[in-house]
TrEMBL record:
Entry's Gene Ontology molecular function annotations: ATP binding; magnesium ion binding; phenylalanine-tRNA ligase activity; tRNA binding
Descriptive protein name: Phenylalanine--tRNA ligase alpha subunit
Pfam families: Phe_tRNA-synt_N, tRNA-synt_2d
PANTHER family from the UniProt entry: PHENYLALANINE--TRNA LIGASE, MITOCHONDRIAL, PHENYLALANYL-TRNA SYNTHETASE
Annotated Aminoacyl-transfer RNA synthetases class-II family profile domain residues: 129-341
EC number(s) from the headed UniProt entry: 6.1.1.20
HAMAP family, per the entry: Phe_tRNA_synth_alpha1
Protein source organism: Nocardioides scoriae
Subunit text: Tetramer of two alpha and two beta subunits.
Cofactor(s) needed by this chain: Mg(2+)
Gene name, Swiss-Prot/TrEMBL: pheS
Annotated Gene Ontology cellular component terms: cytoplasm
Length: 367
């Protein structure tokens, strides 16, 4: 049984007096102002305006007060809680604006940053040039033929009239594979593609075959044990050296421009008769005195060797099953690496094969 209500004695309700309520209010307002982000403000809201906050607990006490005290305390606490609600809403709005600004700032994309931090690879200039060469011939209606890099000795040599005693068959030039009785070599030239083509197709034959070849050469500025050739072969009725010359002049012009000067020099290849070597006017000294005398590019020759060619030896036609009475042909084999060096002023062959992408990218995506 409770006793009668006594007169209002402020001393008995200290937590609800003005000083305390003000203190709680000030503390809460300070905490709200001090909340640095929405997360902190959420914690401040629970602590100072939640169900178990000092002001909420004080509010619960009000009911127990005598009427006059209840009225005063109710007004004080009510006002303090209202102030907190207002302050919380204001701070919330402020922090939301800040958070949004921060997010925009953090998510901003700097369009000036490099977009391709992993540089893309580049097609190798030799690959691009090989395709371009093939295109020159495909545009004339020729076909592209291919052969394997590991080739039968017979196709690399015998079928091409390179007899067993030919110097190119000694160990010095050729990479032989083991076991020796398999008679396989790394092809030393693209010419075996000629034999393969004649054995599998019937004339008229118009084929071009760019590809890799191997020789046991030193690796220096002008030699490499792996290099590239493009082979050409035509077998048809009435083919002469004149067709060969016209074709190679067109090929040279499409590689080096109309102003290029070529020279045909009598030569010898077992698979052609007659044979010639094709030279290009040196692009550095142009064969003009006195520069030509000290020209390092052509070594004082005024000309640079481009490749070999000739009228297909009837013995090769016969070995490959072609009727040599009815058909004649011409063939050529040009150095693709030389073409690239000549066309683009590459002075060291090793730059082409060391796989440094900076060499390739310098050529752009097309030649
Ligand atoms: N295969 C020869 C070489 O590697 C180049 C060559 C000469 C190819 C004359 C031919 C040709 O087709 O007719 O030196």
């Amino acid at each position: 049984m409770s006793g009668p209500n006594t007169e209002y004695d402020p001393v008995q309700v200290t937590p609800l007096d003005e000083e305390h309520v003000t203190a709680m209010r000030e503390q809460a307002l300070a905490a709200i102002a001090g909340a640095g982000d929405l997360e902190e403000l959420r914690a401040v809201r629970t602590e100072h305006a939640g169900d178990r906050s000092p002001l909420a607990l004080a509010n619960r006490e009000i009911g127990a007060l005598p009427p006059q005290a209840r009225k005063d305390a109710g007004r004080r606490v009510g006002q303090a809680r209202k102030d907190l609600t207002t302050a919380l809403a204001a701070r919330q709005a402020e922090l939301e604006v800040e958070a949004e600004a921060r997010m925009i700032d953090e998510e901003a994309v700097d369009v000036t940053l490099p977009w391709d931090r992993r540089p893309a690879g580049a097609r190798h200039p030799i690959t691009m040039l090989s395709e371009r060469i093939a295109d020159v011939f495909v545009a004339m209606g020729w076909e592209v033929a291919e052969g394997p890099l590991v080739e039968a000795e017979w196709l690399n040599f015998d079928a091409l009239n390179l007899g067993a005693d030919h110097p190119a068959r000694t160990m010095q030039d050729t990479f032989w594979t083991e076991p020796a009785e398999h008679h396989l070599v790394l092809r030393t030239q693209t010419s075996p593609v000629q034999a393969r083509t004649m054995l599998t197709r019937t004339p008229p034959i118009y084929v071009v075959s760019p590809g890799r070849v191997f020789r046991t050469d030193e690796y220096d500025a002008t030699h490499s044990p792996m290099f590239h050739q493009v082979e050409g072969l035509v077998v048809d009725e009435g083919i002469t050296m004149a067709h060969l010359k016209g074709t190679l002049d067109h090929f040279a012009a499409s590689m080096f421009g109309d102003g290029i000067t070529t020279r045909f020099r009598p030569s010898y290849f077992p698979f052609t008769e007659p044979s010639a070597e094709v030279d290009l006017r040196c692009f550095v000294c142009r064969g003009l005195a006195p520069a030509v005398a000290d020209c390092r590019t052509c070594k004082g020759e005024g000309w640079i060797e481009w490749g070999g060619c000739g009228v297909v030896n009837p013995r090769v036609l016969v070995a490959c099953g072609v009727d040599a009475e009815r058909f004649t042909g011409f063939a050529f084999g040009m150095g693709i690496d030389r073409t690239l060096m000549f066309r683009h002023g590459v002075s060291d062959m090793r730059d082409m094969f060391e796989g440094d992408v900076r060499f390739s990218t310098a050529f752009g995506s097309d030649l």
